[in-house]
Design goal:
Blueprint: H1 9-17, H2 19-30, E1 36-37, E2 40-41, H3 44-56, E3 60-64, E4 89-94, E5 103-108, E6 128-129, E7 132-134, H4 138-158, E8 166-171, H5 180-187, E9 194-197, E10 208-209, E11 211-220, H6 236-254, E12 271-278, E13 292-301, H7 307-323, H8 326-329, E14 332-337, E15 345-346, H9 353-364, H10 381-384, E16 391-393, E17 398-399, E18 407-409, H11 410-428
Parallel strand pairs: 5-8, 5-9, 9-16
Antiparallel strand pairs: 1-2, 3-4, 4-8, 6-7, 7-18, 10-15, 11-13, 11-14, 12-13, 17-18
Length: about 425
């Protein structure tokens, strides 16, 4: 049943009039580097900026580092080994008048490092060009959180008070399987009737998302040079054979059928090579045969697949292929898990947020917005599996996440701000005058 949405035209006009202001909000976050360099991070300065934006909107404010939350290190979902000195979450609660449902927007402020590849624009300038705005983290996911902040500002400046609370939280250390920041906010007591995670979904409303794991395969040889008749064994050749065989795994893995209807039109599970290293990579000139060569892979899975199931299936598949390969079968090959497993998760069937957001999307896109599972992993499992708050993924349209020239599409971004503001009103309800 399609809900009757009380659309407010003033919201749309405000957002169009404030278009440049909203782009400047994006710049205010993109211009502050917040790269995650495990186990450390650099989110403090950008979190101060977020704190200022939310405080000016009259939110009740809170800030805390993940490791100062009681009980977090004993929680089964806590990931040990990360450092949180001067890495704090920011939470702003815009109190409603009472009697309405609550809504929480959650997103991470850490980004992957810039990397060595060249950009055509300054990654920290928020440059606008050809209908796109560029910047490191603007798509994943500073832009999505700006959309929530701008939506809240629209309601504030228009004098639209809600019945239910709106919570906006920005967390630290999500990249590389972190998610302790998200867990900390849950254990701090921030819960709501629904959460929206504005990860880069390209406007798709995602009631479920995939999970995934990152693994390292190391090939051991015999290092050195044959000055005295020694016979070094170069593990790079075994790794090269593995890379060719990995294609067979990719094809088999992509053909898996999901249990959930939200992935019924999924193009196939992703698995790919993330890195190949041989020898002492920190040494500029390696004048010998390397002793080891390693391959890092990322493998995604549907929500019904558990951590050990994914790892064991991958290892078993590759070991079976390797048994018939003369080179690999005579090489010492070791498999290890690199980061925490990110389980797929989703909201309960029939949740009210889906028809509501779909109806709102229809206002701005005649064909409506896609509603299906997200083909990526994120920290949503901290909500769906470890809290009382169900969470969907719904975020900007853009491209080049984790790559040079990351961007968002500006027109679609403005529509996202409108949809977030209209969702706040429709979900939380307007306060009675």
């Amino acid at each position: 049943m399609t809900p009757n949405i009380p659309f407010d035209d003033r919201i749309d006009r405000w957002i169009e009039e404030k278009r440049e202001h909203i782009l400047q909000l994006n710049r205010s976050l993109v211009s502050v580097p917040s790269e995650n360099r495990v186990p450390y991070g650099d989110e403090a300065r950008v979190q101060e900026v977020v704190y200022g934006h939310l405080e000016r909107l009259g939110c009740e404010m809170d800030r805390f580092t993940p490791d100062e939350v009681p009980g977090i290190k004993e929680h089964p979902a806590y990931l040990a080994g990360r450092h949180y000195e001067n890495r704090f979450n920011v939470v702003g609660r815009k109190k409603g008048a009472g009697g309405g449902r609550s809504l929480l927007f959650s997103g991470h402020m850490d980004t992957v490092p810039r990397g060595d590849e060249p950009w055509s624009v300054d990654p920290f300038a928020g440059e606008v060009r050809d209908g796109k705005q560029y910047g490191l983290g603007i798509f994943d996911m500073k832009g999505g959180m700006v959309a929530a902040i701008a939506a809240l500002q629209a309601l504030d400046e228009l004098g639209i008070r809600l019945a239910g609370d709106v919570i906006v939280e920005t967390v630290v250390d999500e990249e590389y399987g972190g998610a302790n920041g998200t867990l900390a906010a849950r254990l701090r007591g921030y819960e709501a009737d629904i959460a929206i995670i504005p990860e880069p979904s390209n406007l798709t409303i995602c009631p479920e998302n995939q999970g995934g794991g990152m693994y390292r395969i190391t090939f051991h040889g015999k290092p050195g040079r044959s000055f005295s008749g020694e016979e070094p064994v170069n593990p790079v050749f075994a790794a090269a054979r593995f890379l060719l065989l990995f294609r067979e795994y990719q094809a088999a893995h992509a053909s898996k059928k999901p249990a959930s209807a939200w992935f019924s039109d999924d193009p196939g599970l992703t698995s790919y090579i993330q890195g190949v290293r041989a020898g002492a990579v920190h040494v500029p000139l390696q004048d010998r045969t390397p002793g080891t060569c390693s391959i890092d892979v990322w493998i995604q899975c549907y929500p019904e697949t558990g951590e050990n199931d994914l790892f064991d299936e991958f290892v078993g598949f590759m070991k079976k292929l390797s048994e018939t390969d003369e080179l690999l079968s005579n090489t010492d090959v070791r498999y290890e898990k690199l980061i925490r497993f990110l389980p797929g998760s989703g909201i309960p069937d029939g949740h009210d947020i889906l028809p509501l957001t779909a109806a709102i999307g229809k206002r701005y896109y005649e064909q409506g917005l896609p509603v299906r599972g997200a083909a990526f992993a994120c920290d949503s499992f901290m909500f769906n599996l470890h809290s009382e708050t169900p969470a969907i993924v719904w975020g900007p349209k853009g491209g080049n996440a984790h790559a040079p020239d990351e961007f968002i599409d500006i027109d679609d971004f403005m529509n996202l701000v409108k949809m977030f503001a209209q969702t706040m009103v429709a979900w939380c309800g307007a306060a009675k005058s």
